[in-house]
């Protein structure tokens, strides 16, 4: 793909001090991710993949190295600008869905759009389009308790999609689902990638990672493998 990559990470180092001992979690990671890719970041518990996800999602800043998202140097941004970047550039999909129980599906999908200063009519239109995209237009007035686990995750995907961010960041999106429902959610994620959405999926499950087009494997804070699944 031509042009500036969506993500450029160079020599990323991050750690913390615990009980007087310095723990280095990320040890000089470098890679790029282009617009339209579907990448799985895989590693066992304690490998550093969750810390890396926080960096990619602009939820935290690394101690050293650089991170450019859509051409912007994240480390140079103010806290307010970081929050704006998270809202505009990244759609988050979480294992636990993170839906508000008292709100309907369409109201949950609208939530991130409130912070963009949109009118209610604008938000509602985008939310309805996103729910239709994930096959839930006929459930948009249902609350989470009235939806199955798979339907709740689809609402969460619609919420991530509604603002049309350049990147969808999915953290173990099938972790709370049974195998069949998890497969359905993965099919939806692959469909969204086929439509042009950049997908970054964090997982410890090799079978899930195999469904991505590219796998980045993290172990003990090091990048130990970066390959395409069609190789």
From TrEMBL:
Gene3D superfamilies associated with the record:
P-loop containing nucleotide triphosphate hydrolases (3.40.50.300)
Q: Which residues form the ABC transporter domain?
A: 7-231
Checking Pfam families in the record gives: ABC_tran
Keywords noted in UniProt: ATP-binding, Nucleotide-binding, Transport
Name one molecular function that GO assigns to this entry.
Answer: ATP binding
Q: Which residues form a coiled coil?
A: none
Name of the protein in question: Macrolide ABC transporter ATP-binding protein
Source organism = Paenibacillus helianthi
The organism that produces this protein has a lineage beginning with: Bacteria, Bacillati, Bacillota, Bacilli, Bacillales
